[in-house]
Amino acid sequence: MSINRVVITGNLTRDPELRQTASGMPVLGLGVAVNDRRKNQQTGEWEDYPNFVDCTMFGSRASAISSYLHKGSKVAIEGKLRWSQWERDGQKRSKLEVIVDEIEFMSSRNDNGGYNNGGGYAPRAQQAPAPAAPAVNASVYDEDIPF
Q: Using an 8 Å Cβ cutoff, are 131 and 109 in contact?
């Protein structure tokens, strides 16, 4: 038995590209940057190293969510790995990509209908202004939280 499941969170590296197959099925192409945190052996400091992951989503959900996403949007993606190989200009090419089964928006909507870091689900054109944030009690610090 083998298991092929991938879960990643990151930011979109470009605006999603919506295309269609010859039979008319929608195909959404996404690029996601996922950071890998490693300790620099020379400086001893922790540093983020980006990994760039190509993701593809098929079907009516792909066309439905394309208007919700844009470059910089934070997303969580669950899917499976697929390796593809082809030949272009006499050279063999290949890539490993994630075929998206589930996607969650982790960016919140702003007053202009776009998205910031957080969580939101309505299309940009139909957004209502976000409510004002509640006042924060400055006497509570991270050290006061028991976990």
A: no
Q: Which domains does the chain have, with CATH numbers?
A: 6-144 (2.40.50.140)
pLDDT in tens, 48-78: 999 999 999 999 999 999 989 999 999 999 9
The CA distance from 40 to 38, in Å, is: 6
Give the pLDDT of residue 1.
Answer: 87
Overall pTM surpassing 0.90 (yes/no): no
